[in-house]
Amino acid sequence: METIVLxxxxxxxxxxxxxxxxxxxxxSFYFMWLDSHLEEPTVPDDDVEGQLWMVHSGGFxxxxxxxxxxxxxxxxxxxxxxxxxxxxxxxxxxLAVVYYLGSSAFLIDxxxxxxxxxxxxGIGIGTLVVGWFLYDGIYMSGWGNKYTKISAAIGFFGLxxxxxxxxxxxxxxxxxxHVGALIGIIMVLNVWIRIIPGQYNLVNARKNGEEPxxxxxxxxxxxxxxxxxLTLPVVFxxxxxxxxxxxxxxxxxxxxxxxxxxxxxxxxxxxxxxxxSNAIWPVPLAVIAIIMLAGYVxxxxxxxxxKKSLERKVVFSEVQAIIKTRCTTCHSASPTFEGIDKPPMNxxxxxxxxxxxxxxxxxxxxxxxxxxxxxxxxxxxxxxxFVIGRWISSGxxxx
Length: 399
Ligand code: HEC
Description:
The chain is mostly helical. Among the domains are: 103-249, no CATH class; 304-393, no CATH class. The chain is 63% helix and 4% strand. The chain is elongated. The model has no long low-confidence stretch (mean pLDDT 89).
């Protein structure tokens, strides 16, 4: 498809995805906040479990929480399910537009695995479909409900396997986004297939004067807990393409898992606070973990002997020759790479002035990480990265 069409489709979808995603996560944060601030009703009422008052946008709001279900159903009952639905729909379309219809360099990296774009698309979609069925299968079996700790551990282990496996076949960036897409799909389907039907069951049972089926409630609760802990990790994956030091690292999958644990820890702290606890231990733990991760990631991937063999003065003509063969197929006024018809992000690397202007970004993407060349489409070597790094760190003065 015309890249200009894809670019604009991508823009609209990304914009919409963020808007509906904010609505979804925002309303779920809001309900957690509501639940944790309920008080005794001001006028005693047996049906009201808790009540709270708020002031916002020029008016006062009183919320009553009624457990199980009201005796008389209101005319209009508002459900919160479309935010999740549209976040899922826009997300899947965005994935297809950027990674499946866009340039193959987003999806595959010949340094990682020699597969075709079609195979990569198959692996991506297959992971999303099989991943959901495995996840849902574990928790639908009586077993998953009975041994909650073991099944949570299995779920976490499964996530590590998916992250590792994808990092062995797709580009780092595409592996990250597919792990994120799998988590996102699990969260959306949890809402639609496992949580909302439970609420319908409750409402219908009340309407018919019957007792609701308790198994729905148990399942809905478990899936809500999963969604709760997955929220912060999935948001990181969505912004991860800005951080080449994560997905461009040789152990990208392990970095992703550590960031997930940090996200879940911070979320655990929210949960503790919402349940009235003042414990703050998850916060220092998360801070220490992120500092250690930063320290680990910033160690460049060159061994002592590799560095020794390259101990020499680097001249600009050498740097320019590397950039000409490895970068300008895409980063020039008229790119020649398949699927790229204008310089990406308007970054051109043809003249010395242009190279110096973007030196900091070049250092971040092509020296400290392997995220550029995109999907290492032009097969840049480790030595070449080192040479460019030396030239930049020496002040870029040599001719
Ligand atoms: C196969 C095409 C291709 C090649 C080759 C390529 N790039 Fe890129 N580059 C891209 C695309 C596409 C983007 C935009 C990525 C995005 O949309 O997130 C980009 C973005 C960038 C950015 C901005 C990224 C950011 O997050 O700030 C830098 C810097 C960059 N490239 C440097 C380089 C350097 C240096 C080389 C050569 C060593 C190179 N690129 C080779 C396609 C390429």
